[in-house]
Amino acid sequence: MAYDEACGERPRLLVVANRLPVSAKRTGENSWSLEMSPGGLVSGLLGVAAQFDTKWVGWPGVDVYDEVEKRALSKALAEMKCIPVFLNEVFDQYYNGYCNGILWPILHHMGLPQEDDNDTNKTFQTQYDAYKRANRMFLDVIIDNYEEGDIVWCHDYHLMFLPQYLKEYNNKIKVGWFLHSPFPSSEVYKTLPSRSELLRSVLTSDLLGFHTYDFARHFVSTCTRILGVEGTQEGVVDHGRVTRVAVFPLGIDPDRFIRTCKLPEVRQQMNELKERFAGKKVILGVDRLDMIKGIPQKFLGFEKFLEENPNWRDKVVLVQIAVPTRNGVPEYRKLKNQAHGLVGRINGRFGSVTSLPIHHLDCSVDFNYLCALYAIADVMLVTSLRDGMNLVSYEFIACQEAKKGVLVLSEFAGAGQSLGAGALLVNPWDVTEVSSAIKEALNMSVEERETRHRVNFQYVKTYSAKKWGDDFMRELNETVTESEMQIGKTPHQLPQQDVIQRYSKSNNRLIILGFCGTLTEPMNKETKETDLKLNPELKGTLKALCNDPKTTVVVLSRSGRDILDKNFGEYKIWLAAENGMFLRHTTGEWVTNVPENMNLDWVDGAKNVFKYFTDRTPRSFLEASETSLVWNYEYADAEFGRAQARDMLQYLWSGPISNASVDVVRGNNSVEVHAMGLTKDEDIYTFFESETLPSKLPLETRSKSSANNHSLKQKRKVLLNVFDLKEDNYFSASIGQARTDARYVIDSSHDVVDFLHMLTVGVAMTRTTGSFSDSDANANLQHSNGGKTKEPNCVVC
Ligand SMILES: O=P(O)(O)OC[C@H]1O[C@H](O[C@H]2O[C@H](CO)[C@@H](O)[C@H](O)[C@H]2O)[C@H](O)[C@@H](O)[C@@H]1O
Ligand SMILES: O=c1ccn([C@@H]2O[C@H](COP(=O)(O)OP(=O)(O)O)[C@@H](O)[C@H]2O)c(=O)[nH]1
Predict the structure, then answer these.
(1) Among 30, 277, 297, 712, whose Cα sits 20 to 30 Å from the Cα of 734?
(2) Pfam families recorded for this chain (predicted)?
(3) pTM value?
(4) For ligand 2, is residue 46 a contact (CB within 6 Å)?
């Protein structure tokens, strides 16, 4: 269902992109002609606009300084729902400079150009300043046109500062950002001066979209490496704030192409073209004349084909439409000369008086003619060296219902991931491979062409631009709703005073405590698992709590039996080692809680991988037990630690744990693998909350561990009865973590010491005076809050 159908009315949308869908050309004083703008971004977005109440904000394609003229052009554009941003004097340094001279090559793995020492008016810094200024100019226009509730969808690398500016202006605006180009590997991105500021700004958006998983993965890993933030399944997490990162492959409006191919005038153009190329197969190329499109590589591949297949020389023609683009950038001007040189060489080598193998046009063509060309071509040749999507490939397929020609497609275009099944994929750098693919395409049987075409045609029909827009908007709305709910769920400080009062009055109490970070003495960067020690300040308090016959104290830890024995041997306490795999009664004997048939074959292999990374990551450490492995890099360099964790997970998934029944938990600063179904740290907080246990198991593992769930439910039932743990009758608190399933938070392990101490004081006072008053509590506690009325029986920290 489309988004608008679900909501009843069309949502208002401001689409903000560098280019408006129409560009103005001055035809006289105060008069303009408006032409369709080139490029896939515009084509793609045109397919989206209908289902929203859309207005476009963007550069109109010309400089206009005179206010009267500005008003006239704005009026003409308003009829097309377009709002101009007049960039004028900023344009050159912003668009030719920072956007297309610096960002574009970086995004496409082409490296930063050398800064020109002689031109002090045009440096990285001046271009960067212009870029920021231009982004502010977009903001100003948006502010003038924004109405409450509008969704603002920013597009592409031209507008990386806009999300931050928008959120600074009004944090409530729903902001999405979509990148139409690829996102590079962090190794390439990190060469960019000002790399962090751009990432930070983009991360203020609610939703970030990319064409492919590769680009999204590069983005997330770049953020983790450069900013030291956390990368998760959902996206990027920074100080508890999640920026959702997702994949939305753009498509086209296929029906527009199918309809156009049926128009009489287009049929007429097709006939003319067929006549013009009678007796020859037509290979078609349609690209902006951009370095990323691999036009020289295409010519070299074609030259090789002609060289090696003399019988084809007068039977094939390559028609290349090279749409002029970004002439203000020196690299593009050089490319034009290079392309012309190659065309001259190849035509000179293989042409004759009456026929030329390459027809190269330095111009754009109108839409109808483009459709006619797509429709009559036998082969479409796309050799991009790197390309966000490449919609030309889609358009060709949409126009080939009758002919069922072959798409030869670069594996480095985003489209390679969607149309790879029906296309012949090539590495454009490999001229021999391109040449062979041309040959294969030209000789392909009708049956094979039909099968390949069917696959791709189905894809192009289904994954349209409309679907792309719907999916992005739906995700944006869901993301915003979820994050609003998350804010509502942020836990409050533990109401210590209230807990103490009710704890004192209760006759049957259960305290469940963690160990590391809860009861341990303060740790430093060098602390190892084996060195963990119970905080000496707690000894007396813990003894008092354990010796109280009305109180049962449990320490539930990830640590192994040895460590717990060493620290708690002298206490009358329950110990649950390895997250409950081993239990020790207050009398001191350990019992195993491991299911008999549990397969632990994976442990040794995984341990080697953990050890490898521990050895190579200074200040990280490994906690290994019989059933679980935890690699902790809390004290390692944050950026390096995260990068290592990611690599480690990749090794683990592809090797030792690929077929094992394990849970993998990616913590803030740790990677944990444990036998499936064991309680994870955070599960204890939800254990008493609801009937569905454990709450956090990933969907795909739930069914496998249903037997385990059943036994957990049983245990829960027993505990609920014994301790009378009604819903409101217990208090769970996590230490210093904002994102938690616990109901409350306690700021630090110091506060845990104070709080546990106060529990014993409360009991003593109640015993001597019969009550524990607010003033008693206030005299002793720094952190206190108002709270509930029922008697608490359970405290989980
Ligand atoms: O506006 P220009 O500087 O003339 O450039 C035209 C567009 O080029 C880029 O297009 C990208 O978007 C397409 C649609 O998502 C995608 O298929 C293609 O692979 C990309 O190169 C650029 O990203 C756009 O902003 C430009 O408008
Ligand atoms: O003379 C032309 C030839 C092509 N196109 C359009 O330009 C877009 C190119 O998009 P693509 O995604 O392939 O690459 P981009 O140019 O955006 O990098 C396609 O929609 C083409 O229909 C155009 O406007 N004029």
Answers:
(1) 712
(2) Glyco_transf_20, Trehalose_PPase
(3) 0.73
(4) no
**Phi and psi, residue 192, nearest 5°:** -75, 120
Q: Is the CB of 58 under 6 A from ligand 2?
A: no
Tell which one of 392, 393, 396, 464 to mutate to probe ligand 2, the residue whose CB is within 8 A of the most ligand atoms.
392
Å from CA of 114 to ligand 1 middle: 24
In a domain, 789, yes or no: no
Q: State how far Cα 597 lies from the chain centre.
A: 39
The minimum-distance atom of ligand 2 relative to the CA of 37 is 24
Question: Range of 627's domain?
Answer: 601-675
Pair 506, 87: CB distance under 8 Å: no
Residue of the nearest CA to atom 25 in ligand 2? 364
The lowest-confidence range among 193-202, 271-280, 286-295, 532-541 is 532-541
Task: Name the residue among 672, 719, 657, 664 with its Cα closest to residue 693.
Answer: 719
For residue 531, how many other CB atoms are within 10 A of its CB? Answer: 13
288 alpha carbon to ligand 2 midpoint, in Å? 7
Q: What is the 3-state secondary structure (H, E, C) of 731-785?
A: EEEEECCCCCCCCEEECCHHHHHHHHHHHHHHHHHHHHHCCCCHHHHHHHCCCCC
DSSP string, 19-43: E-SEEEEEEETTEEEEEEPPSHHHH
Structurally, the chain folds into a number of domains equal to 4
Residue 606: which of 541, 662, 550, 644 has the closest Cα? 662
Residues with CB under 6 A from ligand 1: 18-19, 38-41, 44, 156, 180-181, 250, 325-326, 387-391
> Cα–Cα distance between 143 and 148 in angstroms, integer?
11
Q: Which residue has the higher pLDDT, 719 or 789?
A: 719
Q: Are 794 and 509 in contact (CB under 8 A)?
A: yes
Structure tokens at 729: 């009758």
CATH label of the domain that carries residue 528: 3.40.50.1000
Q: Which two tokens stand for residue 595?
A: 């299911």
- Maximum distance among all alpha carbons in the chain? 115
CATH code of the domain covering residue 65: 3.40.50.2000
- Same domain as 392, residue 277: yes
Instruction: State the DSSP H helix or E strand holding residue 201, giving kind and residue range, or none if neither.
Output: helix 195-202
Q: How far apart are CA 725 and CA 794, in angstroms?
A: 7
Q: Is position 169 within any domain?
A: yes
Query: Residue 222 in contact with residue 107, Cβ under 8 Å?
Result: no
- Any domain includes 740: yes
